[in-house]
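forwarding from the other thread:

> can someone predict this with zinc ion?

sure thing
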Amino acid sequence: MTDRLYDSDPYISRFTARVVSAEGEWIALDRTAFYPGGGGQEPDRGKLGGLPVTEVKQSEGTVLHRVPGHTFTAGQEVEGFVNWERRYELMKGHTGEHLLFSRLHQLCPEMELVKIAIGQDKKSVMVKGPLDWEIVVKAQEMALEAIEADLPVTIEIVPKDDPSLGEARMKAERIHGDEVRVVSIGEIDRAACAGVHVRSTKEIGMLLVTKFTSARPTADFEVEFQVGGAAKRTALQLSAAALRATESLGARVQDLDRALNNVLRDREMQAEQLRVYEEKALNELIPSRIGGVDLYSGLFGAMDKKMLLDAAARFTEDHAACVLGSAGDRFMLVVACSPDVDMDCAALINEVLSPYGGRGGGKMQFATGGAPTPEHAEDIMVSAIVKIRGILEKNDQENKDE
Ligand SMILES: [Zn+2]
């Protein structure tokens, strides 16, 4: 069993200890300030005897430190340094997580905790339950109030059957042994936890929710947050981005949501107007007459596929050919002709699409195809029209010759 100094005083970052065993790169000490991780919190980093500690883990009550290149032997005294900057941020993050989750839980009691991540790069809680932005923003405000109130964070060991555990957040299946370590934040939260925490909420400094997203299938939602200096710096970046965006939109920052919704609504209306206009243009397409055959041609924006196919069928009932394109996210092409026109639409469509990485298929008189991007829409249309004109003129010449 290692004497875990962080249990009674998480502020110890420098200590001396005696090597109990050295197996390969893994060192066991009689006492340590290195937190081996747990409860979602990453293990510590630092140095032992001047050498980097690259991993820390716990195995049946013994904390093991991985020290590549060491020459330690059992009984030797070594000096340990925990990377305090990193560790202190993780402590703030862990207390911050208790605070944030408890506020979310208070606002949304049916919510359940699924998973916690407290690392240097990412701090988050994954939950199941009906969360929304309003609750998340409110919980963040409440967490900030608790930080400003400078609430004490206390640790107590209580018997497993202590009635006071009734109101504590804990998962019975995670409790091993007869005692439970309970972490309390003032009077507002009690939770079973073996982790390392700051002594008062004020030390967290600041808590900022930086992301709120779906976490399916693991959970319903993931709420990412930052604490301390990182939270302050991100808040400044976000505020600058919001101010720049509102300036572009010509709105006040308080009205950013509304201004953005107006822009989105306008864009939707414009798209609808364009659709109506294009539909009208398609229906009123005027053909050019080549060798006694009507040739309909037109290139549209993101035209509905069915509408384009219906129009092609309608245009090519008798003595007609058509080539219609739609340049949406990708390029779509329809080539068709009436039964009395001698033209292989399927062959033609492949001939014009293949130079642009596209392909098509269909029958002699009706073929459809596309290209991955709308980039060459105009070139493809011109190429198709030139080829169809050539076929129609040749057919006409042959008819005259007969
Ligand atoms: Zn915890």
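The pocket of zinc ion is lined by residues 39, 94, 98, 193, 195 (CB under 6 Å). thats all i got for now
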